[in-house]
């Protein structure tokens, strides 16, 4: 199948490409002799890279590759088959490609190439279908740089569009012009990232199931741009992912919606994790499976794959220092599968047999991890231990090599060899509260014939190093710490074990690590007392300034039966009492191993020089000195990279009875190489093979195959090495093929969310199964011979939700039937006590006072475990009624027919899950129908002639529903009284009326006569009009009418003067409302005439 854009990884991860991993590849593949250690097949045609693209460019059915090829060029690798070199071509471009995408942009069924390019261009090369491509077209994007690129149909026209990350803060969309100009892109539109979020990787899918394609992008966080189906995108929404450096998309739960898997921190522990976010129609991704990962592996890539071309379940390969498979149960649930000693960027491809293989990048080709079609692969097994601090020994006396390790949480990890090259972690026991993964040393320190452990967890606050002793039980388990020794040194580095003082007890020689405060290492000696304790440390030697410190090597160099030491280019000959004589080694270089390599019975020395000679072998003289001229110098030209001092192992690996030399390079920051030199017993060696390895930190020969001869007769030793917290095994292929190991004892423990429950109450039973990790299968839960149910084991636990119908005590047992690696086991019984729970009943009433025959509502609330049944309501004298519980609430309508005070209680009878209970009494006062009247305000101060108002409130009591009429009593002089309205009916609650009081202001009237002069004028005017000359009377009629009017006026004035006097007459007076306080009595009367109340309203008149 064609690799899609989800295999793109962030640019920050590309530093891993410097690690040119060639895992277990046999360079001299043409030789016919079977190599001693296994190799993986390789494929010349493919060279997977995180920035390249894959597809069948020439239609021959093989997967070809296009990758950035330096400055302004695209490199093509046309696949000629796995055993043939590819056809390499380079296409010149106008810019340097960054990320390449293989897809069909013009719908001609031929693979095209789209790529992000320097200068912020998107380039497109349309394919011709024969392995060639048309001249590139370039589309500028308004930004300074582009990174991730993907193809997706955003507008539903059937042509793939291009989306790209621009300047890490935008998503650019370039729509395909489709019909008419297929494969040509439109001008880009930019969509900004959420504030503060940087983007690098981009992909697409339908995350909300609306049939429209969406864009997902991430780096610091993951954001989704939901598509509108017309080529435009909505404002991005951040997901709950706390990081987006490595993510892939796919339908992991097979619900038709696109999901997301990403590497991030574990929300429950301070480790890394694989998290799944599930697509949801709501538009918000929901949390799916979360799988804790070993943080020491440092996973960088996620590669989705399906086991076969017929499978629709997507598993995930997690690639870091090693590769770990995360198995999908088809519903999105993930569990850790096997880990393998392969690394670097990989792609999945389906082989001719329909099974998916993983192809890993190597030097100039790919390494093939062949699939078995079930989520497992054919490759070197890796056991994840969580630390590079590892030691090997036979911890359970079965003749097989086991591994000890400590992690950053202070746990001692025991992994037992299974006899087939694999290890099984059987225990993780915290032995130190210090968050430090310190070294461990194995030996029988208490003389009981069982391997014990010395653990060096770090330095105390006082600056002393700690030494903790754990006695072994001989079965891979250890007793709690008994002895803890503090030694006045700034830590413990390398250690060796031996009896240096001849007392039959194991002692320790160790170095202190160098630091800024202690620039040079120091060698110390601790004498053991045979009981797991040690004497005070004795300083043996200090590092020669600027010398190259070697491992601590021990052997009897002078044949006196006493162990001697080689360290720091010095020889320390033992005196047999724990003291030593130091003398120069007189051989330039770093001593890395010590053993008899030439068959003379004297230890010889393997020395490393950083110069061109590399490794040399020097013969021992048997007196503590060595020849200064090497007797053998391995030829490492072209096969052994220089760097750090290599690791050396000596033992017989080809069953000829002679010691062989295995040199493992340890170059800084690069993969290692294992070179196997076969010895003839006389000091001559021949290179058997070289085996590229993952970058390593520890290695040694071991016995891993249960079908090999028991030690010390095993002359076909296996090899074990570490890489990033993992232990990787190489089985010697000269041994018989290993058989499936016998199952290891498992242990099942049972817990319950609660050991007390009510009938029908749901609780969760959780069984934890330990043994050969991981345990698989199901667990059945049983009580009194009756099955409660079964649950699948996920990450070592199985949980079952259940309930018990009846009261009683139920002993529950969890049974694990075992699997291929684990024996059956049963838990101890956990007793579940089932009994009704206490309930509580509370009572409330709609009103605390009422009238006779007024309906009230009593409400009883019952708490407990989903209480059911009836509640009885009663007063002290009678039962009021019963009501059924609905969702824990029972209500009773009731009206009292008599007056009085009634204490009402609610009693719950209980049910199968709940005990009965009664409420505290609620008092209800029942009175005859009546009403009360109030005035607000109750007084007012005004001036005479003004008005005062007050609001009269009539409140019904006891269910009163009549009509109340208002009237005023005897009113003071000049006071008026009105009501608006004049009556009220408070049938549904209080009713009001406005009372208005009016007052009268005092008044006085006076009458006056005209004055004498005025009276005279009036009489004179009248006489003039009467006796005017004749001719005057002859004036025209208009003038006559005017004269007549004047005459009448004069007559009026005369009349007025006759009714008046020239002096005032006696006054006429109205006193108005008297000043002072006036009490207004308001009387109310029921329309029936049975009730009457009065209230006073005081008015003060000023």
UniProtKB/TrEMBL annotation:
**Leader sequence residues:** 1-30
Q: Pfam families recorded for this chain?
A: Big_3_5, FG-GAP_3
Q: Which residues form the Bacterial Ig-like domain?
A: 751-835, 844-927
Q: Give the UniProt keywords, A-Z.
A: Signal
Q: Where are the membrane-spanning stretches?
A: none
Q: Which Gene3D superfamilies match?
A: Immunoglobulins, Integrin alpha, N-terminal
State if Oxidoreductase is listed as a keyword: no
tRNA-binding among keywords: no
Which InterPro entries does the record associate with it? Big_3_5, FG-GAP, Ig-like_fold, Integrin_alpha_N
What domain of life does the native source organism fall in? Bacteria
Q: Which SUPFAM superfamilies match?
A: Integrin alpha N-terminal domain
Q: Which PANTHER family match?
A: PROPROTEIN CONVERTASE P
Q: What is this protein called?
A: FG-GAP-like repeat-containing protein
The species this protein belongs to is: Tunturiibacter gelidiferens
